[in-house]
Amino acid sequence: MNLTLKIWRQKDAKSPGKMVTYPISNIEGHMSFLEMMDILNDELIEKGEEPVAFDHDCREGICGMCSMYINGEAHGPDRRVTTCQLHMRMFKDGETIHIEPFRANSFPVVKDLMVDRGAFDRIQQAGGYISVNTSGNTQDANSLPIPKADADLAMDAATCIGCGACVATCKNSSAMLFVSAKVSQYALLPQGQVEAKDRVINMVNQMDIEGFGNCTNTGACEVECPKGISLDNIARMNRELIKAKA
Amino acid sequence: MSTLDSKVPGGPLKDKWTTYKDKIDLVNPANKRKIDIIVIGTGLAGGSASATLAEQGYNVKAFCYQDSPRRAHSIAAQGGINAAKNYQGDGDSNYRLFYDTVKGGDYRSREANVYRLAEVSSNIIDQCVAQGVPFARDYGGLLDNRSFGGVLVSRTFYAKGQTGQQLLLGAYSAMNRQIARGKIEMYNRHEMLDIVKVDGKARGIIARNLITGELERHSAHAVVIASGGYGNLYFLSTNAMGSNVTAAWKTHKKGAYFANPCFTQIHPTCIPRSGDYQSKLTLMSESLRNDGRIWVPAKLEDVKAIREGKKKPTDLSEDERDYYLERRYPAFGNLVPRDVASRAAKERCDAGFGVNKTGEAVYLDFKSAIERYGKEQAKIHNEENASAQRIYDLGKDIVEAKYGNLFQMYEKIVDEDPYKTPMMIYPATHYTMGGLWVDYNLMTTVKGCYAIGEANFSDHGANRLGASALMQGLADGYFVLPYTIGDYLSHDIRTGAIPTDTTAFEEAENSVKDTLDKLVNTGGTKAVDYFHKKLGNIIWNKVGMSRNETGLKEAIAEIQELRADFWKNVRVPGGTHEVNRELEKAGRVADFLELGELFAKDALTREESCGGHFREESVEIDGPQKGEAKRDDENYTFVSAWEYKGLPSDAVLHKEELKYENIELKQRSYK
Ligand SMILES: Cc1cc2nc3c(=O)[nH]c(=O)nc-3n(C[C@H](O)[C@H](O)[C@H](O)COP(=O)(O)OP(=O)(O)OC[C@H]3O[C@@H](n4cnc5c(N)ncnc54)[C@H](O)[C@@H]3O)c2cc1C
Ligand code: SF4
Ligand code: FES
Question: Which DSSP string corresponds to B417-436?
Answer without folding.
Answer: -TTTS-EEEEEEEEEE--EE
